[in-house]
Design goal:
single chain; alpha+beta; 4-stranded mixed beta sheet; 3-stranded antiparallel beta sheet; 5 helices; 7 strands
């Protein structure tokens, strides 16, 4: 079945191996390097329109029902995204992550990487912006 193999191969591309390795060692300098030089898997509430390259979809964020704090969840691999999150994902560039954090850093209180494991890590938007060179 050629269709299934092609779909499986496409799923395998939704990862950043350097980021996964950095998270395994909990090395913030290595995480910063991986974020500056590779993509990040981002969960989407709404997937973008394939016919419109300017439509990258709508990023899913978590709002704590008690405090109202908003968290951005990022993943080193789409396979690490919990099934309970919306099914869509995007592979976003370092420039996209920088722009997104700059635009929303006043509302996002924390960023979680691979929140369900295998090696979760947490940072503030300001820490990530500094890691991305801002």
């Amino acid at each position: 079945m050629p269709g299934k193999k092609g779909r499986k191969d496409a799923e395998l591309e939704f990862r950043n191996t350097a980021l996964a390795d950095a998270l395994q060692t909990q090395d913030m300098a290595a995480v910063a390097f991986a974020l500056r030089h590779g993509p990040t898997v981002v969960p989407l509430l709404r997937v973008g329109d394939r016919d419109n390259p300017l439509d990258s979809g709508e990023v899913w964020t978590y709002r704590d029902p008690d405090s109202g704090d908003i968290a951005l969840l990022l993943f080193s691999d789409a396979a690490h995204k919990p099934e309970t999150l919306p099914p869509g994902v995007a592979l976003q560039s370092p420039a996209w992550l920088r722009a997104f954090l700059q635009a929303h850093s006043d509302r996002i209180t924390t960023v979680f990487f691979d929140i369900a494991g295998p090696h979760p890590m947490q940072a503030t938007p300001a820490d990530l912006l500094a890691a991305l060179g801002l």
